[in-house]
């Protein structure tokens, strides 16, 4: 559960209309369904995955959904070359109603080269009414750095020791509240 306070007046009181109660999305949130489409596209990558976040415009947002299973892009039983645009697209569908959120943002995680961080792109960022059918043909709304995407999973760390050196903060003997980062992928 989270509470988003949108406005307070100078007297220190908060009118009830300014408090927004947002229920947490539990771990039973459905993954977005992703299947190879028959339509032409231009997705870049050898393997792709998808995740989404629900949010209220100018308000709170849900936790990130679980990633879909990896989808291998191939043509006539042969894979595409690394870092090459394909002629494939992916059909995405989701059915999950939430009265707390009215927008959805979908992320594409594209593994384009072995041993490298994936490319993360926002591919859809629009109104959400409880159902979604969208074909990812390779177009992007925005790019996201890998570290920024991973930070949205809300992995909290508890360092037992914090030290600084040359204006850089170092954490040691770290405990994680959630899964290890590598377990997310």
Report on the architecture of this protein.
With 185 residues, the chain is mainly beta. It folds into 2 domains: 2-154, no CATH class; 156-185, no CATH class. It has 2 helices and 14 strands, in the order E-E-E-E-E-E-E-E-E-E-E-E-H-E-E-H. A 5-stranded antiparallel beta sheet has the order 5-4-9-10-12. Strands 3-8-11 form a 3-stranded antiparallel beta sheet, with no helix packed on it. Strands 1-2 form a two-stranded antiparallel sheet. Strand 13 (157-165) and strand 14 (168-176) form a beta hairpin. The longest helix is centred in the last third of the chain and has 6 residues, at 146-151. It is flat.
| Proportion in β-strands | 35-45%
Average pLDDT reading: 77
Which percent bin holds the helix content?
under 10%
Distance between the termini: 26 Å
Number of strands: 14
Largest beta sheet, briefly? 5 strands, antiparallel
Number of helices: 2
Q: Nearest-angstrom radius of gyration?
A: 20 Å
Residue stretches low in confidence (pLDDT < 50, at least 5 long) are: 1-7, 179-185
Broad shape = flat
- The SSE order reads EEEEEEEEEEEEHEEH
Biggest sheet strand line-up: 5-4-9-10-12
Backbone structural class: mainly beta
Précis, in short:
This protein has 185 residues and is mainly beta.
